[in-house]
Design a protein that fits this description.
Blueprint lengths: L1 E8 L2 E8 L11 H21 L4 E4 L5 E5 L6 H24 L4 E5 L1
Length: about 110
C-alpha cells in the first residue's frame, strides 16, 4: 500500500511524504503506482520550474519513497502558486484514493 502523509502548518502544506508500493498490478503495469508517481513528480517539477522554489527532496534510489519539504517562502505570489500546485496534487491523489482505496491511503497531519 502507498501511504501519503501531508503535513500542514497554519492550513498551508509544508511537506509531504509518499512511502510504500501499491502492488495493484505486475511490476511495470501498476496503474496506481504510475498515477501517484505522475501526480506527485508532476507537482514537484511544476513547483521547481514555475515557482522557482528550491525544495528539499529525499527519495529512495529504487523507488517507494519520496519526501518533499518547502522552505520558508516570503514572496506571497510564490507562496500562493506553490500552495495551489500542492492542493491540486492533493485533489488528484484523493481521486486516486477514492477509486483505489485498497492500494493508497492519505493522511493529513
Amino acid at each position: 500500500m502507498i501511504t501519503v502523509k501531508v503535513f500542514r502548518e497554519n492550513n498551508k502544506i509544508t511537506a509531504f511524504e509518499l512511502s510504500g508500493h501499491a502492488n495493484s498490478g505486475p511490476y511495470g503495469y501498476d496503474l496506481v503506482c504510475a498515477g501517484v508517481s505522475a501526480v506527485s513528480f508532476g507537482a514537484v517539477n511544476a513547483i521547481l520550474k514555475l515557482c522557482d522554489i528550491d525544495l528539499h527532496i529525499e527519495q529512495a534510489e529504487e523507488g517507494g519513497y519520496l519526501y518533499v519539504k518547502l522552505p520558508p517562502i516570503d514572496d506571497k505570489k510564490q507562496q500562493n502558486n506553490t500552495q495551489l500546485l500542492l492542493e491540486g496534487m492533493l485533489v488528484s491523489l484523493r481521486t486516486i484514493e477514492r477509486d483505489y482505496s485498497e492500494f493508497i491511503k492519505i493522511l493529513v497531519q
